[in-house]
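Give me the 3D structure for Cation efflux protein transmembrane domain-containing protein.
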Amino acid sequence: MVGEVVGGVFAHSLAVLTDAAHMLSDVSAFAISLIAGYYALRKSNAAHTFGYHRAEVLGGAISVLIIWVVTGILVYEAILRVINPQDVDGRLMFFLALSGIIVNVVNFFVLSGTHAHSHKGDDNGIEEGKGSLAMRSAVIHVAGDCVQSVGVGVAAVIIWRWTIFMTFTFGR
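Predicted structure for Cation efflux protein transmembrane domain-containing protein (172 residues):
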């Protein structure tokens, strides 16, 4: 994530910075969910007679707030880029996107539990095709992140290799 921020700044790429901000919001949401889940399991006491069950709702609200703040900052930066365009280093942007794709593919296989060999007699108590809803949603989310990184990579190739097309289309 830090590498993406540094690379995005050097490449002058708002797309790479957006990907880094997205990763930051994902990590923040995960941390908030863990903390909220911990508090939600606490038992009731004299001060909190109904327990801490609402901690998860509050954690979700904080996660949404973080996403909206990050989105607002990125929209503001995008408006500034439209007003004052900057030259983007498409080559650096491409390699940053490629590293994002690699990380997302590794995450996908780690989370999905897919690997090249089988475990005969491995019975973890979960039926084939069944599993944690949270884990399945995490796998789908990582797949979506990978698609986003591919989009950044395609944009990088257009910026890096098709300068004539960009000049003709956008007049720069």
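The CA atoms of residues 2 and 20 lie 8 Å apart. Let me know if you want a second pass.
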